[in-house]
Amino acid sequence: MHALELARDAGQQRLQASALGLLALHEWRLGDSEAAIGHSLQAIPMLKRTRDAAERAQLLCTLAMAYNEVGLHADALIHVTKALDAARAAKDPSLMSWALNRTGVTYELMGDPERAERFKLQALDIAQQINGSEEMFSALNNLCSLLTGASAKAPTPAAAEEKLQRALAYANDALALAKTSGNAHRIAISHGNLGMVQLRLARYDDALRNIDEAERLADEHGYRGLSLSMLADRAMLERRRGDIDSAVALYKQALAQAHQTDDHAMLLSMHEGLYDCCKARGDAAQALEHHEAMLPLERERMKQQADTQARLLLNRLELEHARSETERARLDAEVQRLRAMKLEAENQQLVVRAHELGRHALEDQLTGLANRRRVDHELPLQMASARERRGALSIAAVDLDHFKLVNDRYGHGVGDDVLRAVARILLDNTRGSDLLARMGGEEFLVLFVGTPLAVASDICERLRRAVETYEWRQLAPGLTLTISIGLCDADAGQDMRALLERADASLYAAKRAGRNRVQVAMA
């Protein structure tokens, strides 16, 4: 609690979540499941980031087990499923083992032992892969407990024997693991579980030795709950042996101790054992007395569970209402913010639209290159600039050879793909400062800014080879393509029309000379 207060004072939300998670875990272990649920639900919304996945998985496991303790198994299943998802997100095999284990416990409490066993076996498999002693110990004990309980409901004696033999193997493995760890509590629990399986198998001498050892360790280390459980198991053993009087004496001793601890579950179990013993020896009055004692205990247990469930439901409704009010306020603020931004957004859209319209007016829609309108606007400017600085300016007219045959043979769709590919080749083999344009149809223009004619000629030859060697078959089987280029440079007294006519004249000369060539205009 002190750590939680410090985290709240510091305004550290993640530290608050960690403190709440530890508090919830200890509350669940101490039996205060309602408080554990409340603190877990407070912490979960604080752990939403990806890096919080591991801590979220641990917290969700605690919450699931607390829900199981108060009988809300459907809620437990929802949260343990989320714990599995969080453990996967954290890529933590230990957490996966724990989440699978808790899932198995939940299905067991929901009356589905087959599914419960599958999940617990998965938990054990992962625990063995990572050699996690604590994970393995928990999975082994839970499998032992599951199979021991399931054996009582087996359809045949053979089926019950099979389950108990498997439970015995798990119990022995758990005991060996506990002894390796040196943990007295684990060793005591393992002896107790092993004794219960042997009792069900009617191996009474073996069962008594393990119950004695578990009780010795429990008394030595002060495990009062475990001592009481072993006393009850000893009573059950005597009853199964047929020594009813000894069983009754032991049940009464356990009953007296359970009254001191106010352990309702143990009180109910002891009265049930005494009822069976009294009925077996024909003491109807005593049997009836213990049966009548069971009824108020069961009613009180059910009432406590119902009260807890009702309080949790009410708390959940209040929490959801508070969250909904907070969300409503947030949405209202968001609406106001959006309204305030609306005019700005509309203005920005108008600016973008105007820009797009301007761009589209000067851009060829198929290839993304400049269009004839942009050439008409920019070429005179470039010519004037070249005259002022006495710089070089070269212009190339580019035409696709026999392009009509491409459209006729392969269709206009392939023809469009060809035009786009040629545009890309031009872009890849020229500078960003050069002006590339599609003048119409299959005709292109390249304006080499600041480039002497000889250099421009080399570039045009590179363009010609790039088109000729391009993998045109990827557009259509059997497709080939070449280009013809007419190149000239700008004279000092020349206007735009004259320059374009010189480039076109060179292009026609290239066509007449056989196509797939670069023709440079003579000075």
Could you explain how this protein is built, in words?
The protein is mainly alpha-helical and 523 residues long. 75% of the residues lie in helices and 6% in strands. It has 20 helices and 5 strands. It has helices at 2-10, 13-29, 33-43, 53-69, 73-90, 93-109, 113-130, 133-151, 157-181, 184-200, 204-221, 224-241, 244-261, 264-280, 284-361, 372-389, 403-410, 412-428, 453-468, 496-512; strands at 393-400, 435-440, 443-449, 483-489, 518-520. The chain has a 5-stranded mixed β-sheet with strand order 2-3-1-4-5, with helices on both faces. The longest helix is centred in the middle third of the chain and has 78 residues, at 284-361. The chain is elongated. The protein starts with a helix and ends with a strand. The model has no long low-confidence stretch (mean pLDDT 86).
Write the layout of secondary structure elements.
Blueprint lengths: L1 H9 L2 H17 L3 H11 L9 H17 L3 H18 L2 H17 L3 H18 L2 H19 L5 H25 L2 H17 L3 H18 L2 H18 L2 H18 L2 H17 L3 H78 L10 H18 L3 E8 L2 H8 L1 H17 L6 E6 L2 E7 L3 H16 L14 E7 L6 H17 L5 E3 L3
Helix pairs in contact: 1-2, 2-3, 2-4, 3-4, 4-5, 4-6, 5-6, 6-7, 6-8, 7-8, 8-9, 8-10, 9-10, 10-11, 10-12, 11-12, 12-13, 12-14, 13-14, 14-15, 17-18
Task: Offer a quick outline of the entry.
The protein is mainly alpha-helical and 523 residues long. 75% of the residues lie in helices and 6% in strands.
The largest beta-sheet arranges its strands as: 2-3-1-4-5
Give the low-pLDDT segments: none
Biggest sheet overview: 5 strands, mixed
Please give the radius of gyration in angstroms: 43 Å
Strand content: 5-15%
Order of helices and strands: HHHHHHHHHHHHHHHHEHHEEHEHE
Q: What is the residue-averaged pLDDT?
A: 86
Oligomer: single chain
Distance between the termini: 94 Å
Shape label: elongated
> Total number of helical segments?
20
Decide which structural class fits the backbone.
mainly alpha
